[in-house]
Amino acid sequence: MEFIFTQDQLDFQEAVKGFLAGECDVAHLRKMVEQGKTFSEDRWQQMAEMGLMGLILPEEVGGLGLTIRDYILIAEECGYAALPEPLLETAVVTAPLLAALGGQEEFLQEVCSGEAIIALKDSRSPVITNGDRAKAVLSYDGSAIRLDNTPALQASESIDPLRPVFLCEANGVTISEGENAVRLWQAALERSSLVAAAQLYGLGRRMVDMAVDYARDRQQFGKPIGSFQAVKHHLSSVMVALEFARPLIHRAAFSLADGDPLATVHVAQAKLKAGEAALQATESAHQVHGAMGYTYEVDLHLWMKRVWALNAAAGDLLFLEDQLENTVLDGDLPLGPGATFGAA
C-alpha cells in the first residue's frame, strides 16, 4: 500500500484551503459567535457548488464517485479552519451510508445540492450534532438502521459555541437490518471517527501556527520569545506528536477505502493519537501565549473548544484505548517487525 496522494487530491485540498481562508476566517467565526449563529447558509451553499457534498457519493445521484481517501486532506483543512457546518458529518458519514443502503436517490440528490443535511445518532455519544438543521436522523437500535424525519430533539449544552448538540430520540422507518445493517453501520462509525481524527490534526496545526506567530512578535528581554530554547522545544514536541499522528490518519483512510480487515484498528489508532496530539497542541499554545491565552480576546479558545468537543465525539480517548487493548489481548492485532509500515 502506498501512502502517496495524487496531484488531483492535492489540488482539491488547496482549493478548499483557499476557500476556507476567505470564507471561514477568524473574523467570520467571531461574528457568528457574537450573533449566536452556528451555521452559514451562504458558506454551505458555496461548498455544495464546489461539489464537496457529493465527492464520495455515486455519480447516479450527482456525486463524483470518489472515496474517503480523496476526502481526508479536505477534512484536515476543515479542522484547520474550525469549520462550523456539518460538512464532514453529512458528506463523509451519513450520505455514503444512505447511498450504500440504496433506494434514497432523491434524498441524496438533495444532499449533493446542499438542500438536505443528515445527522447520525452515534451510540458512542449521548448527543447528536446539528440536529436542528437535519432533514433526517439515521440511528441503529442493535438490529436495524432507521431513518427518522421527525426525531424528538432537546437542545443540550455544548462546550463549543459553534457546534450545537442535541439529545435525540429517533425511531422512524427501518431501512436495513441483519448483517448488512451491522456492516454498513460500523463503516459509518469508522468514517465518523476518521474525519474527527483528521480535524483534530488540522486543529492542532492551526494552534501551533498561532503560537509561532505570537512567539515571533512577543518580545521579552529585548528579543522574541520564539528565540528561547524552551519555547522552541515546546512547539517542536507538539509538531512531532502531530506529524506522528498524521500517517496514522492517512493509513486509516487508505485502509477504509481498500477494505483492509484491520481498518477498524487503524481508525482507532488514528483518532487516539490525533486526539492526544491536539490536546498537547492546546496546552503548549496556551503556555506560549501565557495568561492572555486563556482570555476571550485571543482566538485560541475557538480551536481549543473544538478539540475538546471532537475528542469526546466518535469514541473518546478511553473508549479507543480500551478498544485497542482488547484487540491486542484477543490476538487480532499483528505485532512485531512483520507488521510495521515497512512491511506494508
From TrEMBL:
InterPro entries linked: AcylCo_DH-like_C, AcylCo_DH/oxidase_C, AcylCoA_DH/ox_N, AcylCoA_DH/ox_N_sf, AcylCoA_DH/oxidase_NM_dom_sf
Molecular function as annotated in GO: acyl-CoA dehydrogenase activity; flavin adenine dinucleotide binding
Cofactor(s) the protein requires to work: FAD
UniProt domain Acyl-CoA dehydrogenase/oxidase C-terminal: residue ranges: 186-315
Transmembrane segments: none
Keywords for this protein: FAD, Flavoprotein, Oxidoreductase
Ranges where the Acyl-CoA dehydrogenase/oxidase N-terminal domain occurs: 6-115
Family the entry assigns: Belongs to the acyl-CoA dehydrogenase family.
Protein name: Acyl-CoA dehydrogenase
Originating organism: Emcibacter nanhaiensis
